[in-house]
Amino acid sequence: xxxxxxxxxxxxxxxxxxxxxxxxxxxxxxxxxxxxxxxxxxxxxxxxxxxxxxxxxxxxxxxxxxxxxxxxxxxxxxxxxxxxxxxxxxxxxxxxxxxxxxxxxxxxxxxxxxxxxxxxxxxxxxxxxxxxxxxxxxxxxxxxxxxxxxxxxxxxxxxxxxxxxxxxxxxxxxxxxxxxxxxxxxxxxxxxxxxxxxxxxxxxxxxxxxxxxxxxxxxxxxxxxxxxxxxxxxxxxxxxxxxxx
Length: 245
Description:
Elements: E1 8-13, E2 16-22, H1 23-30, H2 36-46, E3 55-60, E4 67-73, H3 74-84, H4 87-107, H5 116-139, H6 144-150, E5 157-158, H7 159-165, H8 170-179, H9 191-195, E6 199-207, E7 213-221, H10 223-244
Antiparallel strand pairs: 1-2, 2-4, 3-4, 5-7, 6-7
C-alpha cells in the first residue's frame, strides 16, 4: 500500500497528542465533487463530530486571507472515508487502519521504568490489563439462556434482532454502544470489534432516485458479539447495584 497517500501528523486534541490528517487533503484524495467548505460542514453536522474532541481548526496564514484548516483524528478520518462508499474511500480507510496499527505497535513496546513513579504506573497498567483479560473471559463465556439460541449458529443478527435478545430497544442499544466507543456516530462498528468478529458491516447495493449505483452499510452482530454486548450490560447493572448499597 502507498504509505504517502495522505500525510499523518500529530495534533493536540482535548489535551492529548493524537494522530491527525488534514481534512482538506482527505477531501482531495476522495475526489469529492463538493466544495471543501460545504463538504466538511455537512460531514460535521450530519455525523455530529465535535470540535475539540474529533478535530481542531487552525488559520493557515500562508494564504491571504488566512485559510481555515481542519485537522481530524484518525477515527474521524476512517469514518469519513467509510461513508464515502467509493473505491477511494475504501483505500483511504485501509490506509488509516494500517497507520493506526503501526502506531499502536510502537506504543506497546515495553519500556523499562527509570523512576519510582514510572514503575508504579507500569504496575497499575499491568493490573488493568490482567483485569481486562479476566473480564474478557467472563464475557466470552455463554450463559444458559443464550446457549440454545446462539451456540452452534453461524447467523448474524441486525440491530433490531440484537436489541430484542437483550431486552432493550434498538436506539437504546446504539446509544449505549456509542457511549462506550464500540460503534461510530454513523452506527458502524469500530475496527477493533470487526477484527474480533463481534460485528460486521453488511453491504447492500441499490440505485438512488437518479439510477446511480450506491451501497448501504449496516451493522450486524455475530453470536459472540451479542454475548460481548450482554456482558457490557451486566457490568453496568452490577455497578449500579453496588452504588445502591
